[in-house]
Amino acid sequence: MKYNQNTKIMQITEKTLIVGVDIAKEIHHARAFCLCYTKSTPVFQLKNPPL
User: How far is 5 from 8, CA to CA, in rounded Å?
Assistant: First the structure.
């Protein structure tokens, strides 16, 4: 299906969980929030295991 950006934004409701992830070389960060809450979750740090 082909959606433009406005169509995607209009699909977000108060029951939608939004997750943002920053993928980096060694340490990654993630945060989740919902429109029904005024505060978001703390930032999670994820590290790659050593090879």
Answer: 5
User: Alpha helices of 1-51 — where are they, by DSSP H?
Assistant: 5-10
User: Amino acid identity, residue 14?
Assistant: E
Taking the complete model, does pTM exceed 0.90, yes or no?
Answer: no
∠ CA 32-34-44, nearest 5°, is: 15
pLDDT tens figures, 14-24: 888 888 899 98
Q: What is the DSSP letter of 38?
A: S
For the chain, what are the domain ranges? 13-47
